[in-house]
Amino acid sequence: MTIWALADLHLCFGVPSKNDGGFWTFMARLYNKIKTHWLEKISPQDLVLIPGDISWAMTLEEGNSRSSLA
Fold first, then answer.
1. Domain, as residue range, for 44
2. Is there a contact between 59 and 12 (Cβ–Cβ < 8 Å)?
3. Quick check: 11 and 56 in contact, CB under 8 A?
4. How many CB atoms lie within 10 A of CB 65?
5. Is residue 34 part of a domain?
6. Whether pLDDT at 19 is above 70
7. Which among 12, 44, 48, 68 is most buried, taking Cβ atoms within 10 Å?
8. What's the confidence (pLDDT) of residue 70?
9. Burial of 11 (0-12, 13-18, 19+ CB in 10 A)
10. 56: nearest Cα among 18, 10, 20
């Protein structure tokens, strides 16, 4: 088992002001890179700690939004 820590993701899938233009293009590439590395390196036996700053959402509705990158 490996213990991983991943923080400050600042996911913005449900935040309209962050989901357009160059910022979203940058973030989409970053999210895909995280997903790729996760699938390559993290096994079911591993423990992943996500200590905080998961989302930029300011409302429950924004925080419950689903990713188009899934």
1. 3-63
2. no
3. yes
4. 16
5. yes
6. no
7. 12
8. 47
9. buried
10. 10
User: Length of the chain in residues, anyone?
Assistant: 70
Higher pLDDT, 28 or 5: 5
Outline where DSSP puts E strands in 1-70. 3-5, 47-49
* Residue 23 contacts residue 65 (beta carbons within 8 Å): no
Backbone phi and psi for residue 65, each to the nearest 5 degrees, phi listed first: -65, 145
- pLDDT tens-digit series, residues 29-68: 888 999 999 999 999 999 999 998 887 777 777 777 655 4
* 12 token code pair: 């913005």
Asked, for residue 58, whether it belongs to a domain, the answer is: yes
Residues 6 or more apart in contact with residue 41 via CB below 8 angstroms: 4
Residue 70 covered by a domain: no
Mean pLDDT of 5-30: 78
